[in-house]
Amino acid sequence: MAPNAKASECSGMLDEHDGKIIDGKESVGTKANKVTLVWVNIFVFAFAYLAAIIGFWLMITSAKLYTTLFAFALYLMSGWGITAGAHRLWAHRSYKAKLPLQILLVFFNTIALQDSIIVWAKDHRVHHKYSDTDADPYNAKRGFFFSHIGWLLSRKHPDVAKKGKKLDFTDLTSDPILVFQRKHYVELMILCCFVLPTTLPMYCWNESFQNAFFVAAMLRWQLFMNVTFLVNSAAHAFGNKSYDVNFTSRENSSVAVLSLGEGWHNYHHVFPWDYKTAELGNYSMNFTTAFIDFFAKIGWAYDLKSVSPHIIKARAERTGDGTHTWGWGDRDQDEVELQNAMITRQLNDQC
């Protein structure tokens, strides 16, 4: 999941070194899998992490309560811009949104500063299509550090671009709202991610510049940025494989809470078209699903896609690791079908 246009071109491995230089830039890795470090991104992230540490210190020592609450509100907004917007709506098309919700999600997404939706969704579709291979931008098999942030600190593996060209992205590149965001991304990102989060606390409740900038802008930005990274790293390293043991993705409740519902990752890789990215039993820790359901009730979200319980149960029994515990197997099949029909009817009524 990429934070800027420069970073979106980058990917690599940082845990093996041969010290060679290619085209004036340091290459690290084995002879079979060399990469080129992108020092601009390394310095940007180093500064961002330092600024976030300063922001955390200021939050607990001098920032006003309103500033902390404002930062949390921005955390939710930027989070939904990624989870409900770039991920579930545009990358997977797991539901449809009317124009007002699309505009709101583009605004939220720009606050998040994880690159334009077009670039983000392209990378994510490639990740699902070629998961755990060299064509996967954040290939979990190349280590925790690589899948968390290392892929942004070095050039992409050639297979990412080569195989990515085989996928159809015309639905993204022909969307006028997404095209507008990408065309004006730099200025919109500066305004939404840094200028507004800094100036609003200063003018609305007389917060100092340093508290507003480091807490509401930098700390908030890096917190959700790294929570997003955890979906690529921790949710591929720790947890159960309740639905398919052949994926590296796992069910991680801690990541689910922090990421507003994206940690039920084994389920998501098995059923990527489900707008919930989780089974119904995970609903209590899936704030993005609640967000989408709210807008479905007012008619802004519709055609919500989901998976019937008996299909989930059958897949878990066939390929899961035996940890599927949401209880569908203990219920009569007629009851399951009735439950599924009721769920479908309720969603349709909401639309």
TrEMBL record:
Instruction: Extract the Pfam families matched here.
Output: FA_desaturase
CDD domains, A to Z: Delta9-FADS-like
- A GO CC term attached to the entry: endoplasmic reticulum membrane
Cofactor names: Fe(2+)
**A GO MF label:** iron ion binding
Q: What InterPro entries does the annotation carry?
A: Acyl-CoA_DS, FA_desaturase_dom
- GO biological process assignments: unsaturated fatty acid biosynthetic process
Q: Which residues cross the membrane?
A: 37-58, 65-87, 99-121, 185-203, 209-231
Where is it localised?
Membrane
Keyword DNA repair assigned: no
Keywords from UniProt, A to Z, are:
Fatty acid biosynthesis, Fatty acid metabolism, Iron, Lipid biosynthesis, Lipid metabolism, Membrane, Oxidoreductase, Transmembrane, Transmembrane helix
For the Fatty acid desaturase domain, which residue ranges apply?
Answer: 69-272
Q: How does it sit in the membrane?
A: Multi-pass membrane protein
Grouped into one coarse class, the protein's main location is membrane
Q: What is known of its domains?
A: The histidine box domains are involved in binding the catalytic metal ions.
Which protein family is named in the record? Belongs to the fatty acid desaturase type 1 family.
Instruction: Name it.
Output: Acyl-CoA Delta-9 desaturase
Q: Which organism is it from?
A: Pseudolycoriella hygida
